[in-house]
Design a protein that fits this description.
Helices cover 36% and strands 29% of the residues. The protein contains 17 helices and 22 strands. Pfam families: GGDEF, PAS, PAS_8.
Length: 558
């Protein structure tokens, strides 16, 4: 407790009277809080008693009398004094004048037991006697508490001169104890700070404890930020000294400033960024959403705060986001994801998420920083590239690569079902070289485009045609049961292709040679199927063009 620490700091070796601090508990109990040097000499309280609750074995004071007076003082908040005789270890009895002084520090109550040695009094004149049998002097305990305290502690007289300093103050100030004792504390402080400290000093000796912070240069010229507590000690209604506790908070304040600066930089970046910047807690709830949410998604960022990270995320992306979020925290690794998120007016847009978990120095999860960027245009471009990779630029039909993938899928399906119901037709446009030579390549390209459209218009919706290159095309017929079904398609193709057309004022008739194959064995690969169809095409062209041939993938009469 802060209050307990303040009271402990009041006890210094320079105090000549015996003093004991009793802490008043919340339930009306009393606890030993601190004993000064002189009190250890007079009492048998041991270091084990510090912090203990007062029991029936109350060392040093008659139980009934003391507890009664303690209750009275807590209630009235008025001091109480009495005289007493106290037997010493050498069996002599000394006279003490004892004052019980109530003290309230930061909403906690204490009782200061102040005992001052007097000339001898008759035992009959004292109000009660201290029992010394269970008491043991403990000077080393108090001295250790004072000297080894991590905070800098010193005492001043009413003129501001040093009475005592501990080791921590020597380290903090850069001065040795012998350089300080008896000298004015203000002489070690630069002039501009003297006025501030004297103001607090005067208020303290008037009975008003002071708590404040200041920055001071120490002997090494290094500046320290200090949290200072000045506390007066009242003895017999008079102030006898000032006790000062100085805590070096330089590193703490530096860390706080760095944190504020970091937060300010983050705020500036977040507010000016065109990306979505989000902070998530351990449960995946949104702690912060940057202003960019409004112009990127059309929704005010306040609507997102408190929502799940899955808010407005496409259903098909939610599971992978949750899975990666958990993995990132458990393994302390950054994550990158692509997903779709809803815009109020534009519908579903593509985004790329980059998330990084942040942990404190002890390894505890603080939050996850997520930066999200819209990538809808990039996805469109990637889709366009994929299309180009599978598309013939002249006819806009699929290319060989695409056809091989589809044929491979169809063969795999046929093997699973142990049944095939498809065929492959290789188609060659007749006389393309002659058209290019006579009318030019632009004319030939337009003829190829017409040729490809007529093939496409002759097929069913589930059939597939692709351009292999030059004047060669290939067709995948679906759901054909016999060679007759395939031949019917070939004839329809011939009829549609042969219809007269006019290109750049020239009327002509296009024709085609075709080779057809049907897999009667499922051991063939897609390459072997294409070679079989190409072989059939070659035979058709050898027969004089504008015709077709059929080759099966097993020995069978054609």
């Amino acid at each position: 407790m802060v209050q307990t620490k303040l009271l402990q700091d009041l006890f210094f070796d320079g105090i000549q009277d015996a003093m004991i601090i009793i802490r008043v508990g919340e339930q009306g109990d009393y606890y030993y809080e601190m004993i000064n040097h002189k009190a250890y000499e007079l009492t048998g309280l041991s270091e084990e008693n510090l912090g203990d609750k007062l029991t029936e074995k109350v060392p040093g004071i008659s139980r009934v009398f003391v507890l009664d007076k303690f209750d009275e003082i807590v209630h009235t908040k008025q001091p109480y004094s009495f005289t007493m005789g106290f037997p010493q270890p050498n069996k002599e009895t000394i006279a003490l004048h004892v004052t019980l002084q109530p003290i309230e520090l930061q909403e906690s109550n204490f009782i200061l037991v102040h005992a001052r040695q007097m000339d001898y009094i008759e035992p009959a004149e004292s109000q009660f006697w201290l029992d010394d049998q269970n008491l043991e002097l403990s000077r080393q305990r108090y001295r250790s508490l004072f000297e080894n305290n991590a905070d800098a502690i010193f005492s001043l007289d009413l003129d501001g001169n040093f009475l005592e300093v501990n080791k921590a103050f020597e380290v903090l100030s850069g001065y040795k104890k012998c350089e300080l004792i008896g000298n004015s504390a203000f002489s070690y402080i630069e002039r501009k700070l003297q006025q501030i400290l004297k103001k607090h000093f005067i208020k303290t000796i008037r009975g008003d404890a002071q708590v404040f912070e200041l920055t001071v240069p120490v002997k090494s010229t290094v500046k320290k930020e200090l949290h200072v507590t000045m506390t007066p000690l009242v003895i017999e209604e008079g102030f006898v000294g000032i006790y000062v506790i100085m805590k070096d908070v330089s590193e703490q304040r530096k860390a706080e400033r760095e944190l504020r600066e970091s937060e300010e930089r983050f705020r500036m970046i977040a507010e000016s960024s065109h990306d979505l910047i989000t902070l998530l807690d351990h449960d995946g709830n949104i702690l912060y959403a940057s202003p960019s949410y409004e112009f990127i998604l059309g929704i005010h960022p306040d609507e997102y705060v408190g929502q799940s990270l899955l808010y407005n995320i496409h259903e098909e992306d939610k599971n992978k986001i949750i899975s990666e979020f958990i993995r990132s925290i458990n393994e302390n690794v950054p994550i990158t994801l692509e997903f779709k998120q809803r815009h109020t007016e534009k519908g579903w847009l593509w985004f790329e998420l980059q998330g990084k978990p942040i942990f404190d120095v002890s390894g505890g999860f603080l939050h996850m920083v997520v930066v999200t960027r819209e990538i809808s245009e990039r996805k469109k471009y990637e889709e366009k590239l994929r299309t180009l990779a599978y598309q013939d630029p002249l006819t806009n039909l699929p290319n060989r690569r695409y056809f091989q993938d589809r044929l491979s899928e169809r063969l795999a399906e046929a093997r699973r079902q142990d049944h095939s119901n498809f065929a492959v037709i290789m188609v060659d446009m007749d006389n393309l070289k002659e058209l290019n030579d006579q009318y030019g390549h632009d004319f030939g390209d337009e003829a190829l485009r017409v040729f490809s459209r007529r093939i496409l218009n002759s097929l069913r919706s589930d059939d597939q045609v692709a351009r292999l290159g030059g004047d060669e095309f290939i067709i995948l017929l679906s759901h054909v049961k016999s060679k007759k079904d395939c031949v019917d398609v070939v004839k329809r193709l011939h009829n549609n292709i042969r219809k007269p057309i006019k290109i750049k004022g020239v009327t002509l008739t296009l024709t085609a040679s075709m080779g057809l194959t049907m897999p009667k064995t499922l051991t063939f690969t897609e390459e072997e199927m294409i070679k079989q169809a190409d072989k059939a095409l070659y035979q058709a062209k050898q027969s004089g063009k504008n015709t077709y041939e059929v080759l099966l993938t097993a020995d069978e009469e054609i």
